[in-house]
Amino acid sequence: MAARRWARTGAVGTVAAAMAATAFTTPAQADSPAPRHTGHQATQRAMDELVAAGIPGITAGARDKNGSWQSTSGVGNLKTGAPRGVNDRFRIASITKTFVATVLLQMETEGRLSLDDKVERHLPGVVRGHGNDGRKITVRQLLNHTSGLFDYLGDPGYQKKYVEAEGFLKHRYDTVTPDLAVRTALSHRPNFQPGARHSYSNTNYVLSALIIEAVGGRTYEDEVRGRIIRPLGLRGTIMPGSTSDMPNPHSKAYSKLSDVAATKIYDVTRQNASQSWADGDMISTTTDLNRFFSALMRGRLLPKKQLAAMKTTVRDSEDPTTGYGLGLLTFTTSCGVKLWGHSGGWLGSLSHALTTEDGRHTLSYNLNGDWNWSAYIAEGEFCGTKAKRLTSANGSAPKR
C-alpha cells in the first residue's frame, strides 16, 4: 500500500494476478556492491549514515548529465553479512501507484474513460454503504486521494491479521483478494465528502485498478506489462501476483512489524504479494524506476494534457510542504530543487523514486529495513554539499 509523504509513503494492496515471466527462486544472494563513485559523495555519505544509525542496508542508483551511478551501503543479509547489491530487486510498495495512474491516464487519451467519470459508471454498485457512494466520487478523486474513502489498512482488524507481528507471522502466505480490501474500507464511514480535502487512502488505488480491469477487459497486471514494462524495457520489474517469493537478485527484507520500539527484527522477505495489490505490490530495481520516471516526465508515456493533469496537485493534509497529483508526489529540497516521484513503504522495504521536472536527473533507492524514513539521501543527491541534514522520521512501514 502506500504510505504517504516523502518520509513515509509506501504501498501494499490486495490481490493476485498472473505470475510474471521472470522465474522466482529462493533464497537468493545479493550481487556484489558497486565501487564508490566520486561524483555522488553526499548521496553516499547519507546512505552510510543511515546504515550507521541502524538500517541494515541501502541500494541506490542515479542518472544525470554525467551518466549513471549505482552504489550500496550496509548488508543485504544480517546472518551472513553479504552486502546489498546494486541490481537488487525489492518491493516498491506505493510507487506502484504511479504505474496505475499512468495506465488510467493512457486510457483517457484513448477515449475509454474520463477522469471526471463517476466510479459508479465503471464499477456499478461496488462503492455503496455506510455513507460511501460511488455515484459521488470521480476517477480523478481516487487518483489524488480526495475521495474521502477510508484506508482499509487503517482497519484495526486488518492490521491485527496482516500487519502486526502475531497475525503477520501466521497469515503472511495467505492469498488475499481486492474484494477484501474494498469490503474492509466500506465497513467504515467515509472520512469526508468527496473533494473536500486530501487524505491518503490505499483503497483508492484498489478501486483504480478494478476500473482498469473493467475498462480494459484485462488484468491490471497485464495492462501495466503491456503499456509500460515492455515498451520501456524494464527487465527487472515484476508483477508478482500471489507469489510469496522474491526474484533474484535480492537482499533480505527486515521489519519490526509495526513496533518501532521493538528490539526483535523479523525476516519478512517472503510474503504473499496479493496482500498489497495495485496499491503497492510491484517489484523493481533502481535502474528500472529511474528509467520509468524519466520517461514519464519527458512525455514518453503521456501526452501533454494528461501529464499536466497528473502534475496538478492538491495540498497534502498531513504535510503541507508536499503536493499530490495523480499518483505523483512533489516537494522541494532545502536547496530549492523541485522533485517529482513517489515513495513506498511496506513491511521490510522503504523506497523513494525521484526526478527533476525535466526527467534528466533521477534517483531511486531502497532500504531493507522499515523503521527509519529519511529524505536525507535525496537531499544529498540533489543538493550535494548544500544538503540540509534532515531529522529521520522513525516509524514502521505500513502505510505502503
Entry keywords:
8-stranded antiparallel β-sheet; globular; alpha+beta; two-stranded antiparallel sheet; disordered N terminus; Beta-lactamase; 400 residues
Structural commentary:
The chain has 400 residues and is α+β, with helices and mostly antiparallel strands. The chain has a single domain, classed as DD-peptidase/beta-lactamase superfamily (Beta-lactamase), CATH 3.40.710. Helix content is 29%, strand content 15%. The strands form 4 sheets. It has an 8-stranded antiparallel β-sheet with strand order 2-1-14-13-12-11-10-9, with helices on both faces. A two-stranded antiparallel sheet has the order 3-8. Helix 2 runs antiparallel to helix 13, helix 6 packs across helix 7 (165-171) and helix 8 (178-186) crosses helix 9 (203-216). The protein is globular and about 50 Å long. The protein starts with a helix and ends in a 17-residue tail after the last helix. Residues 1-30 form the signal peptide. This is Beta-lactamase family protein.
Topology:
Layout: H1 5-8, H2 41-52, E1 57-64, E2 67-74, E3 90-91, H3 96-109, H4 119-122, E4 128-129, E5 132-133, H5 139-143, H6 156-162, H7 165-171, H8 178-186, H9 203-216, H10 220-232, E6 254-255, E7 266-267, E8 283-284, H11 286-297, H12 304-310, E9 314-315, E10 323-324, E11 329-332, E12 338-346, E13 349-356, E14 362-367, H13 376-383
Antiparallel strand pairs: 1-2, 1-14, 3-8, 4-5, 6-7, 9-10, 10-11, 11-12, 12-13, 13-14
Helix pairs in contact: 2-13, 3-9, 6-7, 8-9
Put the structure in a nutshell.
The chain has 400 residues and is α+β, with helices and mostly antiparallel strands. It has helices at 5-8, 41-52, 96-109, 119-122, 139-143, 156-162, 165-171, 178-186, 203-216, 220-232, 286-297, 304-310, 376-383, and strands at 57-64, 67-74, 90-91, 128-129, 132-133, 254-255, 266-267, 283-284, 314-315, 323-324, 329-332, 338-346, 349-356, 362-367. The protein contains 13 helices and 14 strands.
